[in-house]
Amino acid sequence: MRFDVITLFPAMFDPLMQVGVIGRAAAKRVFDIEVHNLRDWADPPHYVVDDAPYGGGGGMVMKPEPVRRALSAIRRQAPDSLVVLTTPQGKTFRQQDAVAFSHTAGVIFLCGRYEGVDERIRSWVDEEYSIGDYVLTGGEYAALVMVDAIARLVPGVLGNDASAEDDSFSEGLLEYPHYTRPVEFEGMTVPSVLISGNHGEIARWRRQESLRRTLLRRPDLLARQELDDADRRFVEDLRKGNA
Ligand code: SAM
Asked: What residue ranges define each of the domains in the chain, with the CATH number in brackets?
């Protein structure tokens, strides 16, 4: 898979490509990432990428010409990639979107700045995504979040590919709690089932804790989830305070 990012601040992506599992995977070319400076497609001598809004008002707007040229050039190198505009007005990016994108050939992220992009730019993008109901100074933060969430699902990126399977949201629930050594710390102990060696019991405990956690913290997720009989019985017990 390949990622392309169009930005006015390419340096913001250096840490992503240099540290942690994503950095290691990028270095090993498990996926490719190309960060493009939008100014490279602006006109000399001043390489201006923004202009004042028609109708007046504060702030500047990203001009269409450099973006058009950037998209055309990158699309030639990545013809199967989807173009994603980062915008607080897009649909909210969720785990299932990360999963879906991880199965595509690639994504070209367009990072807005200032008051955003000239409205005509929207006609050249495939999708518009927001990372939440708040306004950031630039789309770089959103692109970083989305690249990270997608890239970790690309086979070979996580040390143990199975470790994403139980993650929160993957199956529509929050993940169960984790513990590591020591068995006892400041009077708090690890649940005995986790040191029992009984894998069936451990799986059952994890499923139930996942249900408990989701009911407590994100009942909206649980309401959307299809549950089997055992899960339903456990959730009923939880609601009655019996579990
Ligand atoms: N004036 C715009 C509005 O109210 O909808 C906000 C522009 S914002 C200051 C500048 C850029 O940051 C946007 O063009 C977008 O690329 C990015 N951005 C801001 N908030 C975002 C969010 N929640 N999700 C994704 N991108 C965001």
From this structure: 2-151 (3.40.1280.10), 166-240 (1.10.1270.20)
